[in-house]
Design a protein that fits this description.
Low-confidence stretches: none
Distance between the termini: 22 Å
CATH superfamily: NusB-like
CATH architecture: Orthogonal Bundle
Mean pLDDT: 94
Number of domains: 1
Structural class: mainly alpha
Oligomer: single chain
Shape: globular
Strand content: under 5%
CATH class: Mainly Alpha
Order of helices and strands: HHHHHHHH
Radius of gyration: 15 Å
Number of helices: 8
Length: 144
């Protein structure tokens, strides 16, 4: 797991949070991140994929989340919502990324940006999504 990719996820969560809160144009937010050098130590292509991939697939992502959350997705704390959406995006669209990596990275983001205990919430939800969406991968890991 590369630090550049971890940094891309950190920046993407911040950008997604900004998008959720302001409704600003994605290209405008991305330009701000590039200009402010917030992507200096990040894998820029991965940041771009995550940041544009979540809004593009928002309906499917929120649908996957809504099966396991205890309230409407729009009512989830905005920081947790950004992390959960990005985690679900990776679970659904980055099958090359082991589900455990997605969960660990999301938990670390929640510890870094979220409120106390939010990492437990994020872990619980993403684990359930992974059980459903990555069942074949999880079963093959258990068989070993």
């Amino acid at each position: 797991m590369s630090l550049a990719r971890t940094n891309a996820r950190k920046a993407a969560v911040q950008a997604l949070y900004q998008w959720q809160m302001t409704g600003q144009n994605l290209s405008e937010i991305e330009r701000q991140f590039l200009e402010d050098e917030r992507l200096k130590d990040a894998q820029k292509s991965y940041f771009t994929e995550l940041f544009h991939g979540v809004p593009k697939n928002l309906e499917a992502i929120d649908q996957a989340l809504s099966e396991f959350v205890d309230r409407p997705v729009g009512m989830i704390d905005p920081v947790e919502r950004a992390i959960l959406r990005m985690g679900v995006y990776e679970l659904l669209h980055r099958l090359d990324m082991p589900y455990r990596v997605v969960l660990n990275e999301s938990i670390n983001l929640a510890k870094h940006f979220g409120a106390d205990g939010s990492h437990k919430y994020v872990n619980g939800i993403l684990d359930k999504v992974a059980q459903q969406k990555r069942a074949v991968e999880i079963k093959s890991k258990m068989a070993r």
